[in-house]
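testing teh design pipeline on a random one, pls ignore if ur not involved
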């Protein structure tokens, strides 16, 4: 009887040496777990000309070893690889061409420079776990590179174990923090880029991610308009763009998102009329749009016919700070500078012109005399009143 080995778990042992031959000889194995061992060295130092990467491998866990250096090019031939864990090693190079990856863990390595643009080719991306944690990446970002969409997340995961049934993923969506476990992970897709200090414009290409259920870009510093391409996110259930510096109007095409349950654009600089209250947009309330001073609509109890003109809105928005309000610091500085300039101007005029100087001192003297006699008169009146009483 022929036995086919599909899962090989050698985790948490004292295995050592070079891990490359183990991987390249794992023909027929689908899941290979070599984490928690003492494998060391560079994976590029082995001659692999006589080997081919096993096409059967869909999951590899090499975390918590002593591997370092560059990632080997032959990993790029792993066309069916869906999960790859490389955390707690010393890798320094980029990772490309793994188009089938759905979960990747690159935490606690020594990756530097910018996040590799080739990660935008991960067409089946579901989660990118702790991709920035304990590395030396620059600020996380969303960027377009040769029409390639870059999606970088930082989604926490409590368990990274053998099967999807054992996996627990914590994900922020629908204005809450939820844990997902089991086979639902095979069908759930989402991106959480909240609280990452992201800047720049939101890419139109994000609208091409028609299969995602959740998109969270809140609490960043994004600017520009909300892409009209978001109307193509036909499966989206949660879209959170709150706490940014977005401007312009909200596209009426968003009413075509019939699956949308949670929608928030609060605390931005949006203007114009909110989308027509039909389909799912009937369910959204004023809180979903709050702190956008120039939005109008029935839900906001503000008639659009009374709103400021676009030119007025544009002028006011240019004078706003990051939080959508006039910067208090700038206001105080401007006030103090103006105050000092006025005082200096008065001093210079009085110093240069003797006539105005005499007139000024005469005026001050009259004011002092008037105040003094006024106080004396008030005192005498009070004294006489007390005597009469």
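output:
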């Amino acid at each position: 009887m022929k036995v086919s080995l599909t899962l090989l778990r050698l985790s948490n042992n004292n295995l050592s040496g070079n891990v490359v031959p183990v991987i390249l000889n794992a023909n027929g194995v689908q899941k290979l777990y070599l984490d928690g061992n003492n494998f060391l060295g560079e994976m590029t130092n082995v001659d692999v000309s006589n080997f081919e990467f096993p096409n059967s491998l869909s999951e590899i866990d090499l975390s918590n070893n002593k591997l370092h250096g560059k990632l080997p090019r032959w990993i790029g031939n792993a066309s069916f690889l869906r999960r790859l864990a490389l955390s707690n090693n010393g890798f320094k190079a980029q990772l490309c061409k793994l188009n089938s990856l759905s979960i990747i863990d690159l935490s606690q390595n020594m990756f530097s420079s910018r996040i590799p643009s080739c990660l935008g080719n991960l067409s089946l991306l579901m989660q990118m776990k702790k991709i920035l944690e304990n590395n030396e990446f620059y600020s996380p970002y969303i960027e377009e590179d040769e029409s390639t969409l870059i999606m970088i997340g930082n989604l926490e995961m409590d368990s990274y174990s053998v099967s999807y049934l054992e996996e627990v993923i914590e994900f922020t969506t629908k204005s809450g923090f939820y844990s997902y476990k089991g086979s639902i992970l095979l069908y759930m897709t989402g991106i959480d880029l909240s609280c990452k200090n992201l800047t720049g414009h939101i890419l139109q290409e994000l609208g091409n991610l028609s299969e995602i259920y959740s998109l969270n870009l809140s609490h960043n510093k994004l600017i520009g308009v909300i892409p009209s391409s978001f109307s193509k996110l036909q499966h989206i259930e949660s879209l959170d763009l709150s706490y940014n510096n977005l401007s312009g109007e909200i596209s009426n095409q968003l009413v075509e998102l019939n699956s949308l349950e949670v929608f928030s654009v609060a605390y931005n600089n949006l203007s114009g009329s909110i989308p027509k209250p039909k389909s799912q947009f009937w369910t959204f309330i004023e809180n979903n749009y709050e702190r956008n001073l120039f939005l109008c609509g029935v839900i906001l109890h503000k008639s659009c016919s009374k709103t400021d003109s676009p030119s007025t809105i544009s002028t006011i928005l240019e004078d706003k700070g990051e939080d959508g309000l006039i910067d208090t610091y700038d206001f105080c500085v401007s006030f103090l500078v103006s105050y000092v300039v006025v005082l200096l101007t008065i001093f210079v005029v009085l110093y240069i012109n003797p006539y105005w100087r005499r007139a000024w001192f005469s005026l001050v003297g009259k004011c002092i005399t008037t105040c003094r006699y006024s106080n004396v008169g008030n005192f005498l009146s009070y004294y006489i009143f007390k005597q009469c009483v």
